[in-house]
């Protein structure tokens, strides 16, 4: 998208979820609001991409059931006016692959089975995605980045290309090449929604 936009700014806090108040790590949604506001003071935001892992919430079923929807809705209510368009990501699928073995196989050009089961991966995060579906945001598009590497027709998610290039470095973090696939997928989604 470099041919469309002159500036891209990245802000992240490792393992943080923007709407989730993590008392152990002293992370609060206001940290994200402040960062977005500081960027807006320098230049307007055309597209705000909010992509995070929801993995730590899977260990908190009570939070998912009772608080996630309200806190997530409040977060998006607060950021909706900060950008022309907002990209909200669905939860990343966790790859059911033994990645130490997979990485050794890639190094030895032995990627005979670089796949994981799509339905199983999707089922693991279904509760989270149902909540994401309920979020109301007038200028948001919801993007499932998993579709860049998963195919529901053949029920597989690919972890490496046929030539042995790894797309993931662990159960959900992408490699540089995986990031390129996600960027290409995002560009297609933005075009589909007439944003690009």
How would you sum up this structure in a few lines?
The protein is α/β, with parallel strands linked by helices and 196 residues long. The protein has seven helices and six strands, in the order H-E-H-H-E-H-E-H-H-E-E-E-H.
Write up what this structure looks like.
The chain has one domain (29-192). Helix content is 38%, strand content 11%. The chain is built from 7 helices and 6 strands, in the order αβααβαβααβββα. It has helices at residues 29-42, 61-66, 68-79, 99-107, 118-124, 126-134, 176-192, and strands at residues 47-50, 85-89, 115-117, 140-143, 150-151, 156-158. It has a 3-stranded parallel β-sheet with strand order 1-2-4, with helices on one face. A 3-stranded antiparallel β-sheet has the order 3-6-5. Strand 5 and strand 6 (156-158) form a beta hairpin. The chain is globular and about 50 Å long.
Number of domains: 1
Q: Which parts are unreliable, with pLDDT below 50 for 5 consecutive residues or more?
A: none
Q: Report the sheet with the most strands, covering strand number, pairing sense and barrel closure.
A: 3 strands, parallel
Strand content: 5-15%
Organism: Bursaphelenchus okinawaensis
Protein name: SGNH domain-containing protein
């Amino acid at each position: 998208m470099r041919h469309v936009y002159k500036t891209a700014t990245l802000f992240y806090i490792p393992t943080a979820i923007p709407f989730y108040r993590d008392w152990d790590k002293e992370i609060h949604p206001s940290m994200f609001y402040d960062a977005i506001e500081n960027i807006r003071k320098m230049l307007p935001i055309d597209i705000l991409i909010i992509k995070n892992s929801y993995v730590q919430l899977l260990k908190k079923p009570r939070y998912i059931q009772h608080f996630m929807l309200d806190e997530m809705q409040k977060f998006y209510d607060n950021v909706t006016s900060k950008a022309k368009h907002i990209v909200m990501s669905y939860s990343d699928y966790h790859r059911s692959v033994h990645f130490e073995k997979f990485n050794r196989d890639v190094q030895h050009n032995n990627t005979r089975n670089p796949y994981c089961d799509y339905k199983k991966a999707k089922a693991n995060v279904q509760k989270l995605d149902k909540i994401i579906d309920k979020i109301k945001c007038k200028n948001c598009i919801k993007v499932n980045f998993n579709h860049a590497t998963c195919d529901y027709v053949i029920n597989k998610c690919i972890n490496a290309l046929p030539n042995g290039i790894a797309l993931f470095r662990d159960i959900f973090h992408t490699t540089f090449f995986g990031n390129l696939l996600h960027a290409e997928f995002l560009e297609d989604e933005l075009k589909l929604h007439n944003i690009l």
